[in-house]
Amino acid sequence: MLKVLLFCLLLVVCWPLAVAALLLYPLIWLVLLPFRLVGIVVGGTFDLIAALFFLPGRMLRAL
User: Fold this and answer.
1) Is the dihedral angle over the CA atoms 6, 11, 13, 19 positive or is it negative?
2) How many Å is the Cα radius of gyration of the chain?
3) Could you give the CA distance from residue 36 to residue 30 in angstroms, rounded to a whole number?
4) pLDDT tens digits along 25-48
5) Contact present, 11 and 18 (Cβ < 8 Å)
6) List of residues 6+ apart from 17 with CB closer than 8 A
7) Is the overall model pTM greater than 0.90, yes or no?
8) Residue-level pLDDT at 40
9) Pick from 60, 15, 51: which is nearest to 7 by CA?
10) What share of the chain is helix, strand, coil (3-state, %, to 5)?
11) Distance between CA atoms of 40 and 38, rounded to whole angstroms?
12) What value, to the nearest 5°, has the Cα angle with vertex 22 and ends 11 and 8?
C-alpha cells in the first residue's frame, strides 16, 4: 500500500518520472532475476553443507 501511495505522490509531483519508473520496473526486475536465482542456489548449497556437517551429531543424538 505504501508503494502505491509513493507512486501516486510521484505521479502528482513529476509525472514523466513516474511513467518512466512504471515502464522500467519490469526491465529492472528481469535484469535482477538471475542474481535472485544465484542467491537461492547459494543459500541452498550452504544449507546442504550445514546439514551434512551436523548429520553425525544428529545421528548420535537419535541413539
Assistant:
1) positive
2) 22
3) 10
4) 999 999 999 999 999 999 999 999
5) yes
6) 10
7) no
8) 98
9) 15
10) 95, 0, 5
11) 5
12) 25
